[in-house]
Amino acid sequence: MKTRFAPDRGLSSRMLITSFLLGLLYVGFVALLIALTRSAVLAVLIAGGMLFAQYWFSDRIALFAMHGKIVTPEEAPQLHGAIDRLCALADMPKPRVAIADVDLPNAFATGRNPKNAVVCVTTGVMRRLDADELEGVLAHELSHVAHRDVAVMTIASFLGVLAGLITRFGLYGGLGRNRDQNAAVIMLTIIGVSIAVYAISFLLTRALSRYRELAADRAGAMLTGRPSTLASALTKISGDIAQIPSRDLRQAQAFNAFFFAPAITGKSLSSLFSTHPSLETRLDRLGTLSRELGEQA
User: Which residues form the active site (predicted)?
Assistant: First the structure.
């Protein structure tokens, strides 16, 4: 699907490389486990079914978990109006529009493709941002849909579950009946390999997640032509998230990779483990883009 969103070759190549490496990693992992224990076959079938369900119903799952509700133009005319303008400007299909009645100021996009996508904003973010700032956030989320990185992240983030699931089947299935030394060696091998697989997939998906946020910032700001309003929205949201009770933030952290801004307090222990670039990095990039657009004008 071609849109007027600025293409990002860096994002496309990173999605391709990440998908290839994760696929290669898990093919090797599954092949090893099948060679070691028959129970891995059942685990692969179950995990494959779960992955298919998450991919096909990712929008419904996300809305249910965040208490989001699809709204009509009559129920949210201003929100629909903003998305209508942006979709016309970007020449892309309009996604479904949802609102989550939570105070956490945030937004996210999900769905397996642009024709089956949904953009959801919280009542908290609508209450805190003005019209231009909210439009900047919506443009950011729509760029995720246009670039199809939402679907890639949905699949990539799920694959980490496979290591633990297959390991459990291996330990409590075929290995549980064998108590000899060979079984112990196999068990330790599976545990070691599964830990390595999870760690590698975790770092790969985190790296992709950080880059895609920078790509969405740039594409969204280029579409609206106002990087400063997106920077203002980002500053407001990040500052207000710090005031949200820790209990509420912990409940939302499972969706950090999909949020406009991460639901965390303080700074991450390491940039390697973060789903988003630092606030300073994002603001610096938007500031640079603002100067570039000003020079072109």
Answer: 141
**Residues that constitute the known binding site for Zn(2+):** 140, 144, 213
* Domain tally, the chain: 1
Give 105: exposed, middle or buried? Use CB within 10 Å, 0-12, 13-18, 19+: buried
Q: What pLDDT does residue 297 have?
A: 44
With respect to residue 4, please indicate whether it lies within any of the assigned structural domains.
no
Distance in angstroms (rounded) separating the CA atoms of residues 94 and 171: 47
Q: How far is CA 70 from CA 81, 150, 181, in A?
A: 15, 19, 57
pLDDT digits (tens, 9 = 90+) for 276-286: 888 899 999 99
Catalytic residue numbers, as ranges: 141
Using one digit for the tens of pLDDT, what is the confidence trace for 191-234? Answer: 777 777 778 878 888 888 899 999 999 999 999 999 999 999 99
Answer for the pair 30, 44: CB distance below 8 angstroms, yes or no.
yes
* Alpha-carbon distances, residue 252 vs 62, 191, 214 (angstroms): 11, 29, 21
Q: What is the pLDDT of residues 50-59, one digit of tens each?
A: 667 766 776 7
pTM of the model: 0.81
Please tell me what DSSP assigns to residue 7.
Answer: P
Which phi-psi region, left, alpha or beta, contains residue 91 (left: φ > 0; alpha: ψ -120 to 50)?
Answer: left
Count of CB atoms situated within 10 Å of the CB of 90: 20
Query: What distances in angstroms separate CA 258 from CA 16, 17, 144, 157, 196, one per listed residue?
Result: 19, 20, 9, 10, 25
- Measured CA to CA, the distance from residue 197 to residue 217 in angstroms comes to 31
**pLDDT for the residue numbered 255:** 63
- For residue 2, being part of any structural domain is answered with no
CA distance linking residue 4 with residue 218, whole number of Å: 13
243 lies in a domain?
yes
